[in-house]
Amino acid sequence: MKHLLIFAALAAGTLMSCSKKDDPTPTFNINQKATLSIQFDNIVGDRNLQLNTATYANASGESFSVTLLQYFISNIKVKTVNGDEYSVPQDSSYFLISEANASSQFVKVRVPEAEYASISFVLGVDSLRSTMGIERRTGALDPAGTMETGMYWGWNSGYIFFRMEGISAAAPVGPDGLRKFRYHIGGFGGYSAPTINNIKTFTVDLRAGGTAKVRQGREANVHLMADILKVFNGSTSVSIANNPTVMFSDFSRLISANYTQMFRHDHTEN
Description:
The chain has helices spanning 2-22, 127-130, 143-149, 251-258, and strands at 33-44, 47-48, 56-57, 63-80, 85-87, 94-98, 106-112, 114-123, 152-153, 158-167, 180-186, 200-205, 212-214, 220-227, 245-246, 263-269. The chain is mainly β. The chain has one domain (2-269).
């Protein structure tokens, strides 16, 4: 009798577990929303990024460590397995990812309950938002806050989309005695005349690593890997010795072209 009771309990637990795991995702309904989490896990090649302590090497054979990594993610859109698309309202779609702030690496947005096959987003800040009045640029885009985080060019009135800094023996010695490299990439295309445009849009297919089943009562988390080694090792091989500092210059286009291969889907936790 005791064995029968144990078996019955195990069977019930198994049924409950299967029911929870396999419950159907609701049909796409724009008025019924739940939370989708997108995790940006920064890596360097096949290694986890560790600020200040770890040393890495680029394709030019130059060793380097990273002291700072920050970038803007914006204009998030999702597409269901059936082809339905949803754009997160712009006012709720700007985020600053910082390697020094673990919580910032989890972007959480409200989207309709559904099963999603792809996610798209912009690395950077679009031209429309960049030129809006300060009252429309709040939260992660507040110019006062971004001046503090170093993600805004006061002299250029524009956001820095991607900022990476570090130390490398290949870099020249600076006034402080350190061999620093700095890549501050921005440029939204210009306000009154054409200028550098480094806004990049990414679309990530989720199907191979698991679609995101968004529903109430449970938070789906899409785990993306962001490989910053692509900044150096892309269509252009970037040498720290030759380009220790890159900001608002034509060479910044090559770096932004490199990091178009930076993101890949690792897995989804439903």
